[in-house]
Amino acid sequence: MSDTPDPPPVSPDIRSWANAFFAAIGWAERSPEDIAREQENAAAEAAFDAITDFRATRHITDSRGGAGTVSITEVDGQRYIGVNSENFDEADRERARQWEGTLGIPAGRPGSFARQALYHAEAHTLMQIYENTDGEMPAELTLYVDRIACSSCQNTLPIIISAMGIETLTIRLANGRIATVTEEGFVGDWQQ
Ligand SMILES: [Zn+2]
Predict the structure, then answer these.
(1) Cβ distance 82 to 122 under 8 Å?
(2) What residues does the MafB19-like deaminase domain cover (predicted)?
């Protein structure tokens, strides 16, 4: 038989001292904001890993022979990857032409600046989601993109998302910087 005494009950003093100690060494209980940020970071890491895997299986070019932008996201468990029009197939080109009409982009040279965005990775991703969901777009969506948006995308993406019914499009870059796109335009630290 052991006559070891029971350990003393944890006193409130010891509990508050322990909480202060763990806070001091960075083990404080995580706030909902911390947890949300960790989840966003994990999602971004998975997305950029998926872009790396995609690039390993397919050479994505741009119009100058360089590496083209890749954009990726997931909606309802389905992954969508966008590329620029150098890498489009005929269905992709037809989809972009249809959106030119829907958005009222003028034919020929007058619409050339606005039109470019429909042939870039970001809009390519959105057009595929729109088609697959029959236009039931999420109100909020995050695209993971490995280049900053060009001036045509900055001009036209707000118009595209508004026409598609997306309220807020978050564009997250590999360096963690973010552009928040609404029908009003782009805001955020993405260009810094
Ligand atoms: Zn662009």
Answers:
(1) yes
(2) 73-180
